[in-house]
Amino acid sequence: MLFLDEAPEFNRDVLDALRQPLESGSVTVPGPGFIRDVPASFTLVLAANPCPCARAGRGSCTCSPATRRRYLGKLSGPLLDRVDVKVELFPVRRQELISDRGLAESSEVVAARVAQARARAAGRLAGTPWLRNAEIPGSELRRRWPPVRGAMASAEQ
Questions:
Q1: What digits encode the pLDDT tens for the residues 104-116?
Q2: pLDDT given for residue 57 in this prediction
């Protein structure tokens, strides 16, 4: 996973350079007398405030609409086309964090669940050219493992 916090603060050319490895899963590295493709399969996670002051939506933002547009405009359309999930988060109060401690799972519990999911995927993908779900082309995914009726209802909404 590649996590870019405050993504609009990165140079736009740097962000757009991520498009090629996101699509191909590799990076072409030229050197003196050689060109080498290096594996670069990753999940890109971008975090961004709605404006440079980070106070939009809280009533104390001082940014003009043009400033907000310019700030978020650093994330190009072609890069945003590769974003699969968008989640808006709201500030959490200290008391909420403290009261949620009892609901938190340990890293060991989460790691065990991930290991089980990977084992199920390995069994499902045995005999195919893929090792991970993310490698399966969408058309193959829909053909070989279509979702059961109603499973996509919340995603479609």
A1: 899 999 999 999 9
A2: 67
Cα-based angle 126, 130, 133 (whole degrees, multiple of 5): 100
| 135: amino acid identity, one letter | E
Is 83 a residue whose pLDDT tops 90? Answer: no
Q: Looking only at Cα atoms, what is the longest distance across the chain?
A: 60
The number of angstroms, rounded, from the C-alpha of 135 to the middle of its chain's C-alpha atoms is: 15
Q: How far is CA 38 from CA 19, 27, 30, 58, 132, in A?
A: 15, 5, 10, 44, 18
For the chain, give the secondary structure using H, E and C. Answer: CEEECCHHHCCHHHHHHCHHHHHHCEEEEEECCEEEEEECCCCEEECCCCCCCCCCCCCCCCCCHHHHHHHHCCCCHHHHCCCCCCCCCCCCCHHHHHHCHHHCCCHHHHHHHHHHHHHHHHHHHCCCCCCCHHHCCHHHHHHHCCCCCCCCHHHHC
Mean pLDDT of the chain: 88
Task: Give 90's pLDDT tier (boundaries 50, 70, 90).
Answer: confident
